[in-house]
Amino acid sequence: MIYKEQFYIGYRDVDANYKIKNSSILNIFQDIAGMHSNEATKKHKNLQSTWVLTGYKVNIIKNPKYGEKLNVDTWATEIRNIASSREFEIRNKQGELVITGISNWVHLNIETKKFEKVSQELADAYGLEPDKTNYDEPKLKKINEPEEYKYEKEFTVNWNWIDVNQHMSNIYYLDIVDMMLSDEDRKQEFSSFEVSYKKELKYKDKVKCFYSEVEDSKIITIKSEDLSVVHAIVKLNK
Predict the structure, then answer these.
(1) Does this model's pTM top 0.90?
(2) Rounded to whole angstroms, how far apart are CA atoms 87 and 108?
């Protein structure tokens, strides 16, 4: 099943150059993934489970701008054991493919708070499209933490970053990344970005964020205040 929806790029979605922000791309992905999931599981009224996001990879072919209407498609390519893979395509009004994305998820039982194998009935409800893909494999590769950092900054998780699960919403990790970048970095157009989510953040958590440059990539590592936990790693590729 390929789920389709149209989105409009407003002021809140763009940067100072009127181009869509990376966090806004993920916001679109998050919204349409939820719409597809609600449609697929509407017959499962007593479903006691949810999907937890573990990572994204996004390729930007052309940056959409303020005022554009975008046609967005999403579909599940694979559901195996506790894990699933979902892809996205964004096209402009001319029908040009401008952004592709792939995401990985794990299936969580809401009551036990444990990962749970996906039933065949639930997997069938999503109408898998295993042959429709823009990527080499459904499982995202690990992002390695850099050995060296150029600088670091500290942040505290704000209340308006918190979602219904009382965790920091996945899209705000990209806003932290924007705050880590220099003015020169923000002027650059990155061809892709990757996000690996490791451990959730909660309201008032303090984090230390580290900026690295590895070849043609900028890597931001988000850690706990005492450095004992890696919460996320984000990689921006030229």
Answers:
(1) yes
(2) 20
